[in-house]
Write a structure and sequence with these properties.
Layout lengths: L16 H4 L15 E10 L9 E7 L19 E3 L1 H8 L6 E5 L9 H10 L3 E6 L13 E6 L23 E6 L2 H13 L7 E6 L6 H11 L4 E2 L4 H4 L8
Parallel strand pairs: 2-4, 4-5, 5-6, 6-7, 7-8, 8-9
Antiparallel strand pairs: 1-2, 1-3
Length: 246
C-alpha cells in the first residue's frame, strides 16, 4: 500500500488512545477472520453523497469486477496488501473519527468485506458502503448505509446492474448516477421515474469529472425539475484530482 501524500490529514496525537482504539472481545478469544486485500486506508473529507464535507475514514479494498470507461481508481484492480480485520481496526483507531466508508474497487468482491462491515458497526462506527450495485447487497449488515452506483450506458457497464438490489432499498440508503453525456442523463431520468427512486431514498447525480461540464448537468436537472441531489466530487476541487489518499 502506498503511503498517503504528505498533504493528507494526519493523526491527531492528542486524541486519547483509550477513546479511539477498539477493544478485544470480553467473552473469550476472537474468531479468526480471513484477511482482505486493502489498497489504502486514509482519513480525509467525504467528497460525495449526503455526507459530503464530513471528516471520514476510508477503507479502500482491492479488486473490481467492472471496468467502467471513466474509472478514476484503476490502481485498485490489483494493488494492495493483505490485512486482517484487527489490523484494519488498529489503523482506523489512530484517527479521531467514527465515520468510515468501505469502498473500492468493488468491496463486495471480497467475501470478508461483510464481516469487516459488521465488526466496524460493532465497534461503534457509522459505516457507509459504496458499491457498484452489480453484486447482491442483501447480506450487508443492516446497520450499514448503502450507496449504490447504478451504471449508466456511458460507463460501458450498464448490463452489469443487478436490478434486484433496488427491491432492497431503504430510506437511509442512497442511489448514485454518474453522468457522462446527455444520453446518460435521459437514461438515468427514466430509471428514476420508472422505479420511483425519488420516493424510496436519496438520489444523487454527478457529472463525470472533466468529461461533462458541471453547468450542463445542473441545467438539465433544473429544466426537468428532477428530484435529485446534484453533487460534485468535492475532494477533486480541494486537492489535485490525481492525488491518492484524499
Amino acid at each position: 500500500m502506498a503511503p498517503a501524500p504528505s498533504s493528507a490529514p494526519r493523526v491527531d496525537p492528542s486524541w486519547p488512545l483509550s477513546s479511539r482504539c477498539h477493544q478485544p472481545p470480553a467473552d473469550g478469544p476472537a474468531v479468526q477472520q480471513p484477511d482482505l486485500k486493502v489498497n489504502e486506508i486514509f482519513f480525509s473529507l467525504q467528497g460525495e453523497s449526503s455526507h459530503a464535507g464530513r471528516p471520514c475514514l476510508f477503507v479502500r479494498l482491492s479488486y473490481c469486477n467492472l471496468r467502467c470507461s471513466w474509472c478514476d481508481s484503476t490502481y485498485t484492480f490489483e494493488e494492495g496488501r493483505m490485512m486482517s480485520i484487527a489490523e484494519i481496526l488498529d489503523e482506523l483507531c489512530r484517527h479521531p473519527c467514527k465515520l468510515v466508508e468501505v469502498t473500492g474497487g468493488e468491496p463486495l468482491v471480497q467475501e470478508p468485506s461483510f464481516a469487516l462491515m459488521t465488526r466496524l458497526c460493532d465497534e461503534g462506527y457509522e459505516v457507509l458502503l459504496e458499491t457498484s450495485g452489480s453484486l447482491d447487497i442483501s447480506r450487508v449488515d443492516p446497520r450499514v448505509q448503502r450507496i449504490i452506483d447504478i451504471k449508466c450506458p456511458g460507463s460501458g457497464m450498464v448490463d452489469r446492474n443487478l436490478w434486484s438490489n433496488l427491491d432492497l432499498l431503504r430510506p437511509r440508503d442512497e442511489i448514485k448516477f454518474v453522468i457522462a453525456d446527455r444520453n446518460d442523463y435521459l437514461w438515468a431520468r427514466d430509471i428514476i421515474e420508472n422505479h420511483a427512486l425519488q420516493d424510496r431514498c436519496t438520489v444523487l447525480m454527478s457529472p463525470v469529472f472533466d468529461v461533462l461540464a458541471n453547468v450542463e448537468l445542473a441545467e438539465w436537472i433544473l429544466a426537468d425539475g428532477l428530484a435529485v441531489r446534484y453533487q460534485l466530487q468535492m475532494h477533486k476541487y480541494i486537492w489535485d484530482p490525481s492525488m491518492r489518499g484524499v
